Amino acid sequence: MFFVIFISVIIIQRIVELWIAKKNEIWIKKQGGVEAGKNHYKLMVLIHSCFILSLLAEVFGLKRSLIANWWILIALFILSQIGRVWVIISLGRFWNTKILVLPDAKIIKKGPYRWLKHPNYIIVTLELIIIPLLFQAYYTLIAFFIFNLLILSVRIPTEERMLSLHTDYLKVQNMERRFLIHLKREK
């Protein structure tokens, strides 16, 4: 029963995120925003949809149950969701599931973007580990961790290329190194 409620919450959350993304897409395109990565976006949607289906199949088909120390993973999942909301709020109208860039926009350097270049992808990767691990769905964990790494190996360079072409991304990246800490190059 817990699994059904948990997976239902995730599906509802994804639907709400797609609604937010669509609203933001309409706005950014009206402002002159440009899109990239349409082909791999379809693959990314397929991967994330199949993740849910694989999780359902493995949990029900192989009769998986909650891991012994489930509360630790639930806590990590809740933290990841707080991070997800922080990312969405920090980017505001610029947050999207697609690669949409507004030419000449300034790179956002608030929220988790003060320290990390791609916090949303870190959060998604953590979810693809935490959720299957929570229900001992190890086949789903391994397969979709690999699929996620493959799609991110295409998506991140595409996104960075678009940001470099249309914004001050390169300037910001040359002045600041963002990973886990905020550093400024001394002059």
Query: On the 0-100 scale, what is the average pLDDT?
Result: 92
Radius of gyration: 18 Å
> Which structural class is indicated by helix and strand composition?
mainly alpha
Tertiary shape: elongated
Q: Uncertain spans, ≥5 residues at pLDDT below 50? A: 180-187
- The CATH architecture term is Up-down Bundle
Ends apart, CA distance between termini:
59 Å
According to CATH, the fold-level topology is Four Helix Bundle (Hemerythrin (Met), subunit A)
For the largest sheet, list the strands in their spatial order: 1-2
Give the helix tally.
6
Multimeric state: single chain
List the helices and strands and how they pair.
Blueprint lengths: L1 H29 L3 E3 L1 H24 L8 H22 L7 E3 L17 H16 L3 H29 L2 H7 E3 L3 E3 L3
Antiparallel strand pairs: 1-2, 3-4
Helix pairs in contact: 2-5, 3-4, 4-5
3D structure, described in words:
Its main location: membrane. It is found in: Membrane. Residues 180-187 have low confidence and may be disordered. The protein has helices at 2-30, 38-61, 70-91, 119-134, 138-166, 169-175; strands at residues 34-36, 99-101, 176-178, 182-184. It has six helices and four strands. The chain has a single domain (2-184), classed as Four Helix Bundle (Hemerythrin (Met), subunit A), CATH 1.20.120. The radius of gyration is 18 Å and the shape is elongated. A two-stranded antiparallel sheet has the order 1-2. A two-stranded antiparallel ribbon has the order 3-4. Strand 3 (176-178) and strand 4 (182-184) form a beta hairpin.
